[in-house]
């Protein structure tokens, strides 16, 4: 459930901080874990949401914000397009449930991207529907920003792999 995840997420990040000295290593680990979750979560999302095929990056980003975030985290981020090409979007969260029980990051962990798991989840889920994307945090309330902002840059449609027969 959402509540259990939010309550245990802090313990997960704390343990990773003990296991890894460098924030970059913790960030990479959180992204990898999120990616694995996203790869599996997309099946649940498609089954539970009865979502139709999206025909544009804009529709895809709206689906992530309005359906997926609401379904799994109970929040609906605002979406903004930040490129003329229409392939760069921002998900803007006024409230991030993953930081409900976090006051601030320790000074020695200034480069920690506490919620980097979310970037991996989004990237993994998008890859499973054949959309390659870079997903990064652009702003973070834990670092003094007014909002939490996740940037999604769609790279290209991932090509279906054809298996060669010998």
In words, what does this structure look like?
This protein has 166 residues and is an alpha+beta fold. It is 45% helix and 17% strand. It has four helices and four strands. Strands 1-2-4-3 form a four-stranded antiparallel beta sheet. A hairpin with an 8-residue loop joins strand 3 and strand 4. The longest helix has 27 residues. The radius of gyration is 16 Å and the shape is globular. The protein starts with a helix and ends in a 9-residue tail after the last strand. The C terminus is likely disordered.
Outline of this structure?
With 166 residues, the chain is α+β, with helices and mostly antiparallel strands.
Which helices and strands, and how do they pair?
Layout: H1 2-19, H2 23-49, H3 57-73, E1 78-81, E2 88-93, H4 116-128, E3 131-139, E4 148-157
Helix pairs in contact: 1-2, 2-4
